[in-house]
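Hi R.,

Here's the chain you asked about this morning:
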Amino acid sequence: MDSNQLSANNIQPLSGNVIREARKAKGWSRAFFATTMGKSVSWVDAVETGTRKVSQKDLPKLLNTLELHLNRY
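And here is the predicted structure, written out as C-alpha cells:
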C-alpha cells in the first residue's frame, strides 16, 4: 500500500473537541445539533466529551452536517 493512501485502520477518529468547536462555530446549541443528527442531547454530550465514539453509520452525516473533512484532522 502506498504511504499516501488511507485505510480504515489508520484514520484517526474526530476528537470530541473538534466536533464541539465545529458545532459552536455554527452557533448551534447541543439540542439543535442533536435534533439535526436525529440523536439525543446526551449522545452529543457523550461524543463531545469523548465517552462515546461516533459510529461508522453516523460519521458521514456528522461530517456533512458540520461540514468537516477527515483529512483535516
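One quick note: The two ends are 21 Å apart (CA to CA).

Cheers,
M.
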